[in-house]
Prior knowledge:
Elements: H1 2-27, H2 30-38, H3 45-53, H4 58-70, H5 77-85, H6 90-102, H7 109-117, H8 122-130, E1 133-136, E2 140-143, E3 148-160, H9 171-187, H10 192-197, H11 200-207, E4 217-232, H12 233-288, H13 293-320
Antiparallel strand pairs: 1-3, 2-3, 3-4
Helix pairs in contact: 2-4, 4-5, 4-6, 6-7, 6-8, 9-11
Amino acid sequence: MGAETQVFGSLGxxxxxxxxxxxxxxxxxxxxxxxxxxxNAYVGLMTLIGMRLRRVxxxxxxNARISSAKAGLDISINDLEAHFLAGGDxxxxxxxxxxxxxxxxxxxxxxxxxxxxxxxxxxEAVQMSVLPKVIETPRITAVAMDGIQLIAVSRVTVRANxxxxxxxxxxxxxxxxxxxxxxxxxxxxxxxxxxxxxPDNISKHILSKGxxxxxxxxILSIDIADVDVGQNIGxxxxxDQANADKQIAQAKAEERRAMxxxxxxxxxxxxxxxxxxxxxxxxxxxxxxxxxxxxxxRMKNVQADTAMRDSIxxxxxxxxxxxxx
Length: 325
């Protein structure tokens, strides 16, 4: 029993020693310390331990420090660690600074960190400043002064402006401004043929406005890729206006016709009203002795004769206007 107890005790002590050694190696990343020392990017052991305690991965910080030192850049451990704690991408920032240094583009760490924390891809921005990017606008529709619609597409070559990346407008603003310039240039052209003959005038007019002001890019060139002829908007508008005028004239004519019909009905009503007064007048004349019975009969004969003549005249008009054999 004594021997077994000693064996178990030795094993327990060994496990405790191994656990303590593993925790010590985790707390003090000796391989990283050696790699940083061998790369002339020395990082103290206490600094590495402090990173562990601050929950900062030492591998990320030390590798970024080694990369910058090998590229000839002096970036302190505190700056790298502070950028990581602020939520930035340390490796991407260091790679962007190395790329900028190789391209002779001034890129201090504070500017690179600010660009990264602003939500922009700082490495892509540096690459775009070295290799310009081509942005194609959507199909822009505009109408020349002669009423012909033109549909144009342009390709905008831009280069990232490092100094304006923080706070500068993005690609959407550049596309919107170029589209606005295309619409205004085509709209001020006297004819659509002038635009088709010299589409480069659109590029020159847009470039002269300085549309890249306030953006994160610098416009290098604007090339008109395609110009198509659309509808005759001027003729269509004239047709629509003519139809509208026609409807207005018809409405006014209908209004005048309705007024004439109403006036005619009113006059007929007055005639009927006047005719209704005739029997009263005749009765009054009989009572006062101003009219005799023979006068009444003569008036009736005249009315009958007039009605007969009207009837005969109507029959003759019907026969003369009938179909000819």
